[in-house]
Design brief:
heterodimer; A: 259 residues; mainly alpha; Multidrug efflux transporter AcrB transmembrane fold; 10 helices; 81% helix; 0% strand; B: 372 residues; alpha+beta; 2 domains; five-stranded antiparallel beta sheet; 8 helices; 63% helix; 15% strand; YibE/F family protein (chain A); YibE_F (chain A); UCP031503_TM (chain A)
Amino acid sequence: MSTITVLGLLLLLLMILVGGKAGAQAFFALILNFGLLFLAIVLVAFHFSPLIVTLVVGVLVLALTIFMSSGDDLSSTVAFLASVGVLVVLVLLIVPVEHWALVQGFGPEDSEDLEGLSVLVGISFVQVTMATAILSTLGAIAEAAMAISAGLSEILEQHPQVTMKALFGDGITVGKQIIGTTFNTLFFGFFGGFLALFIWFTGVNYSFGEILNDKIFVAEVLMVLFAMFSVLLTVPITTWVMTRAIALRRKRPQDSTES
Amino acid sequence: MQGFNKKHRVTWWAWLLVLFIGGLLVWGTAHDARLYQDPILQVTAVQKQQTTKETDDFQNVDHQTKQKLTGHLLNTKRRGQRVTLTNTYSTSGAMDQRYHVGSQLFVVVHRSGQQLHAMVKDKKRDTPLVFMLWLVVGLLLLMMQTSGLMAFLSVAANGVLFFLAILLNGSTQGAQVLWIFGSLAVAFAAVTLWLVLGWTRQMVITLMTTLGGTLCSILVALVVFHLTHEKGMYYESMQYVTQLPRPLFIAETLLGSLGAVMDESTDIISSLYALKRERPQLTPRQIFLSGRQIGSTIMGPLINVLFFIFVADTFPMALLYLKNGNSWGYTFSMNMSMGVVQSLISGIGIVLAVPLASYLASRWLPQEEVHA
């Protein structure tokens, strides 16, 4: 058996042991997410627009991740709507910044890996780079949105009559609790992967100025910053969606007496 | 009400101050050419020239366009002089860039006769970088104030540690990569948790969970590597490798999963602390079960976070492989397999941290600190 199969089975086993049915479900969601990611690459290879493919796949990934984790209906729906909102704002930011920074495709550091490959493939790599940045952030957006909406729904359970203004403040408080650790998850997640690149920079004696303008370096750091930006944005957007959802529910006559 | 208004005004001033300082920095990087040794050219006119159609061996069609750029030098002793140069860009733009009026470029200048000629080396990219940094830090501080500052400080402190470790690794030619980044992981976790939680018993429990979970996942991975003879792992597909790939891969995985495991342990243990404070009569077994319950809801999304970080990065290269007539299987093996292995190992660490955190918390939650 290959290493991936054994590690995968081991992970599945552990997730079932620890999480039971929810664990198995989360593992299944992971597999589906991989399928979606691979599908996105294949679709772009068939000349579908990278940005549109990413948006569609992105919404599917968010839905899958959020609705397949355990959580009550209200908090899942709020988390999903909020994360889609964050995705849209993120796209609006990424498009101009990527056009400005021109960090698409490959840099001189990649030339060894590119040997024997034709790079003139007729697909806009500016858009591919945007797609990469957006996709790499999806997991973080979903996680943050779920954490905040779950925190808020817990507060609502304990204080059902909380005012909208207080609820908004609570959202920011919940955000404050998660932001430190989430930033570290992103920092380590990304920088762990860039370790080889950074070792390369010091080994080949790049100057500070060269690193600061290097295509690959800037591309990678921008990805981290986009991810941090979207997690930050998740806090007010999720809180706002939650207040709207609650306001809507309260306005409605008492037809839903449960919850 | 007075207090609220005053607080409101202070926040408003903070907004303006952060906006202003950031704007100044962004403006500064757009005018910092004189800090660089290499000549920098500002493009003032662009003239589009002929476009040629290119078809490669795999029937990929692309268009290459030549553009004539005119501009003046912003630094060195030739500052202010006019230079013309040509640049070729393609529709795909994987290895080239299309430049516009206003672009600042690093160039190599040489003189032939009376005329100055130049070649583009690369684009100047520090301005967008600093702009994004400003946006994130500004948003962080304005939205989260003190907590934001602490989050920023812990990331900055980790960045400095990371940089020092890389220098140390360079000075030992990469022979000690696992030891260096292993100790670094301990330092990272200790500094971060100390900044977030202070020097408390909660911090010690969280630290032990983080290190224990990460260490277990690496050990499990090594055992599996040994038993499966690393079948289906292609170290040669790792990018930018300048030293022995196997220890480097393990170091990457170790660091990559550390943050997520720390995130999860912090969540579980602080929730259990809150729970114990509310209901002091809980038995260790009940605490263990609650910890497992909390952990099993957050582990899935966290594994997902790392999965997308590790695997989405391979998009451009995988795409290029597909467009160069490679099969799906080969494209996966050569681009995504290592990222998937990394995600799986991190996933195992994240899952293992759940019972570990619950167990440690159930044993060591203080009884005396509780005043119900």
